[in-house]
Amino acid sequence: xxxxxxxxxxxxxxxxxxxxxxxxxxxxxxxxxxxxxxxxxxxxxxxxxxxxxxxxxxxxxxxxxxxxxxxxxxxxxxxxxxxxxxxxxxxxxxxxxxxxxxxxxxxxxxxxxxxxxxxxxxxxxxxxxxxxxxxxxxxxxxxxxxxxxxxxxxxxxxxxxxxxxxxxxxxxxxxxxxxxxxxxxxxxxxxxxxxxxxxxxxxxxxxxxxxxxxxxxxxxxxxxxxxxxxxxxxxxxxxxxxxxxxxxxxxxxxxxxxxxxxxxxxxxxxxxxxxxxxxxxxxxxxxxxxxxxxxxxxxxxxxxxxx
Length: 307
Fold this sequence. Notes:
- By secondary structure, the protein is mainly alpha-helical.
- It contains 15 helices and no strands.
């Protein structure tokens, strides 16, 4: 008879513990578990599979540790609000290990054929006629500002003390990044600057920061299969849409920036236009899905968001 109250107590305690989790905690935990299962399945192909599994376990443990009831310390609160950024970067870098082992192929030729069928030319090659060092410099700076532009919306929300909106935006952006990573794995694409290099007649040249920015981005991105769907198009659209609730001026600036970013990805030969279309469509699809998903995973009534 004593077992019944004990089981009931454990059940109540478990529910209380899980109710303290934020939607973004569930999102990353689910993603890490799913990828860990993939690593386990292909452990004989994936280098350092045991280390990857250990890192996934540690990542989930950190989330659980800081999300537990009573963990209201300043350190845990800072971690819970900021951890999506390093987690996203780690998950992105992990793709450079997983894709060659799990999906050792690419779809660049298919993307190039679709682009050519759509435009009657390869857009990156056709745009050579507009090449100018000033334009290359401008577009490389625009391209390099991609991550800061996404984070700046979060900064504005935090500065205005719209903490519920900040948490929802963190969830939306995290969902966008993780969805694009799944796309990279399903449809590995490196980009036109590799496949179509032999067709390019003009070498891209900038002025002051062009080469340094390009080399830095190559180092950070590991020259991996990260084109389809375009995370740049997807996250730029999500940031632009979220900016509409901050101020009309911010929304207008983000609209202009998004257009310039999309142009830069093709001019700089990072993306096919079909990648951009896929990324933009994914963003449009995620906007209503994210709201339902976020509500299902449990924001409290006092944490209503307006984005």
